[in-house]
Amino acid sequence: MEDKYISPFLEALKNVISQFGVTDIRFGKPERKETMHVDTDITAVLGLVGNLRGNVAYSMSSETAKKTVSAMMYGMPVEEIDSIARSAIGEMANMITGNAISSSLSLLLSGEKTTFDITPPSIIFGKDIYFIISSIETVSVPVDTSIGRIEVNIGLEI
Amino acid sequence: MIKRILLVDDSPLIHNLLRKTLEKHGYEVAGDAMNGKEALELFAQLSPDLVFMDITMPIVDGLEAAKAIKSQQPTAKIIMLSAMGDEEIMSQAKALGIDIFLQKPFDDYKIISAIAKVI
Amino acid sequence: MDMRMTVPFVEALQDIFKQMAMIEVQTDGDPFNDNEEVHSYGVSSIITFAGKIKGRFLIDLDTQVALQAAKNITGSSYDSPKEQMVLAVVSEMNNIISGNAITKLNNEYGLSLRLAPPIVFAGTDVVISIPKVASASVTCTTACGKLKASVAISKA
């Protein structure tokens, strides 16, 4: 997977979370791996089907997840990750991925690669999880923000 | 002459399973391609007698790769081996002149009898 | 959720466990409407799909079932479900199960569904949830442990 496919997801993340008032967004160094090891409580993962196939996963700590949901709900305090909070995290994953595709990613995929769709997000809880989300490689990028770190894991089959 | 077969699949597990079956029955694995792009390169390099081709793969999928191979060499023998096999995919494969379409999973009999029909 | 949607998945699961891994899978009963949260038995694989509808198929295996399947398929023994080959086996089995099931659904109902690549994972005390989407599950028993198949469908 070429580097140029990574930045649409990072830019989309920045766009979406800055709309919720999150600041100090800094992208870390991308790392390429076959298996991704997650040690941060919560991962939201969704798929892409069509001419662009793959999975994208967003991982964060419970603390960051609560702050994210709180920010999405206009600052309402969030004590636990209940079903409303899970659905908000899923929605955020949807928004970021949808934003990445509709903005810059579709420009990169000019020509015949134009039909794709996003699948429903799953939310996975638990520590010390080993994931494989792509048969080729996964590019992981840590993103530090005012509410903590969000790791973006991209496994596109291109 | 031992028949030489090119394996194309994005799962290393499928390569292992096919290799075991083929070698047990006296065929040679000419090469292992993990996607359609590698398949095109290896096909040109190795001129295998037959290709086993998966469909959903990264970079270039199996239908595209089969199309490219058939256009370069219309007599090329290709067996599609895919987890998916709905009518739409089957008709696309047929239009490309694919010799046989097999749906996964497979056993030795399924693989060996398909090979006997094409080469 | 329409329980009929689970039938092709459960049939494919039983066929493929038997054919590929030589493991007999007995269902414990009929499919039931599941909670939003699935507590993982040990190793899980998710495949999502989209077309005229969208959804997710989950297989969740006791660690022993995953290790036994990997052993039967590859001929080698494994100690941990976190080993690459064990994860690869579960992932490819789910790929074939979902491919077979989706093929049937497409041919029967004209849904034009396409699969995303499989996701597979193993961890400690893992909980899987799919927000806002109804799911139906079937629990199953094998000689080496439990497994669960769960189908979630949402309108596109």
Provide a compact summary of the structure.
Chain A has 158 residues and is α+β, with helices and mostly antiparallel strands. Chain A has helices at 7-19, 62-72, 83-108; strands spanning 26-27, 31-33, 36-38, 42-50, 54-60, 116-118, 122-132, 138-145, 148-156.
Strand order of the largest sheet of chain B: 2-1-3-4-5
| Overall average residue pLDDT of chain C | 94
The Cα radius of gyration of chain C reads 14 Å
> Which chains have the largest interface?
A-C, 40 and 39 residues
Helical fraction of chain B equals 40-55%
DSSP summary: helix tally of chain C: 3
User: How would a textbook summarize the main sheet of chain B?
Assistant: 5 strands, parallel
The rough form of chain B would be described as: globular
Please give the domain count of chain C.
Answer: 1
> How many strand units of chain B?
5
Q: Based on the structure given, which CATH architecture of chain B is correct?
A: 3-Layer(aba) Sandwich
What is the N-to-C succession of helices and strands of chain B?
Answer: EHEHEHEHEH
- Major sheet of chain C: size, sense and barrel closure? 9 strands, antiparallel
* Secondary-structure class of chain B: alpha/beta
How far apart are the first and last residues' alpha carbons of chain B, in Å?
Answer: 12 Å
The level-1 CATH class of chain B: Alpha Beta
Q: Which fold name is given in CATH as the topology of chain C?
A: Chemotaxis protein chec
The chain-level mean pLDDT of chain B equals: 95
Task: Compute the number of helices of chain B.
Answer: 5
